[in-house]
Amino acid sequence: MYCVYLLRCSDDSFSVGSTKNVGGRVRTHDSGRRATYTFKRRLVRLMYTEVFDTETQAIKRERQLKRWSATKKADPDCWQDRKAQKFEQATCVGM
Question: How many angstroms separate the CA atoms of 73 and 48, rounded?
Fold first, then answer.
């Protein structure tokens, strides 16, 4: 399982990525290790995840979300009717 995730940073900017372990990746972002963009924007909050069967599918979706404006990413209506999973329910969240 591969996940695409959307983080909201402390400065209200967004970070989008993909991983096999969302929980571990969020911790990496919060710690500032290997997370250049979020290093100065910690703490981060996980806003959204989507689960995919293949890495290729996840990367394709990640690239699509990265092209969205910050306004669109912040709009809850953009996330309705999607295969969204809350953080607690995501199958690829390793804590």
Answer: 10
- Give CA–CA dist 72/22, Å, rounded: 22
d(CA 93, CA 23): 5
CATH class label, 2-89: alpha beta
Distance CA 39, CA 50 (A): 24
In tens, the pLDDT along 73-94 reads 888 777 664 544 443 334 444 4
Give the residue from 3, 37, 42 showing the smallest Cα distance to 19: 3
DSSP-based three-state secondary structure for 27: helix
Q: What is the pLDDT of residues 40-63, one digit of tens each?
A: 777 778 888 889 999 999 999 999
Strand-pairing partners, residue 95, are none
